[in-house]
Each structure stands twice: as C-alpha cells, then as structure tokens.
Write a structure and sequence with these properties.
Structural class: alpha+beta
Oligomer: single chain
Order of helices and strands: EEEH
Number of helices: 1
Largest sheet: 3 strands, antiparallel
Strand content: 25-35%
Helix content: 10-25%
Distance between the termini: 39 Å
Length: 70
C-alpha cells in the first residue's frame, strides 16, 4: 500500500485489493479491498460479494461529494 500513498496527493480515494488473497480478485464472486483516503485514513472491506464491495466503494465516493443544493 505504500506504493499508492503518493497518488493520494492527487486523488481523493484509492481502492486497493490484494489479488493473492484466497477468494479475492479476478475470477471469483468475492473480493476484499482497502479504501485509502487522501487524509491518510483507511477503511478495510473484508471479504464479501463483489456487489457488496462495490456498494461500500460507492458509499465512500458519495461521502466525498459535495451536498446537493436544497
């Protein structure tokens, strides 16, 4: 993950996954990722269906968007 940290100077969020983990990565129905935020915080998404992982990523992206005007 240290390789990704310099990217966060230019990005709000990076999603990283270790495709060597059993059940994660390509060719399966599950994945596990780490969401790295620009502020240095991280959220680990444990092994879950790819749909659940995608929903967690979208939730994080939504939290970064400005609020819609009333």
């Amino acid at each position: 993950l240290d390789v990704v940290r310099p990217l966060l100077e230019h990005l709000d969020l990076v999603v990283a996954n270790d495709v060597t983990l059993p059940g994660a990565g390509f060719g399966g129905d599950t994945n596990a990722v780490v969401l790295l935020r620009r502020d240095g915080s991280r959220v680990e998404v444990k092994l879950a269906s790819k749909r659940e992982v995608a929903e967690r990523i979208l939730d994080e992206v939504r939290s970064l968007l400005p609020a819609a005007p009333a």
